[in-house]
Amino acid sequence: xxxxxxxxxxxxxxxxxxxxxxxxxxxxxxxxxxxxxxxxxxxxxxxxxxxxxxxxxxxxxxxxxxxxxxxxxxxxxxxxxxxxxxxxxxxxxxxxxxxxxxxxxxxxxxxxxxxxxxxxxxxxxx
Length: 126
Hints:
The chain is an alpha/beta fold. It has one domain (17-125): Immunoglobulins (Immunoglobulin-like, Sandwich). It has 2 helices and 6 strands.
């Protein structure tokens, strides 16, 4: 029983590919967008033209089918950072976008270090 619980927890912590479908109109020309992250990221959110299609995922690859063709605005957040881009989506083949994401732990450590430096500098100046 314990082994089953440990295995389930390990599977829950692993990243997995996310496949979603954009809610486009049936007569609208559409294509597919593939977002390839440089490393698995947590709290991944993706919006196309302001419509949220991925929410709080732990992944390194996102496939969005039925995305509207043409120039589209994509906003992605991952590991506490965000990226906004304007992308052309074609109808004949998938549009693949490689993206670098920051390490999840480094953002917290940088923030903590910056806070400590600020406190020390403030106390020395007083």
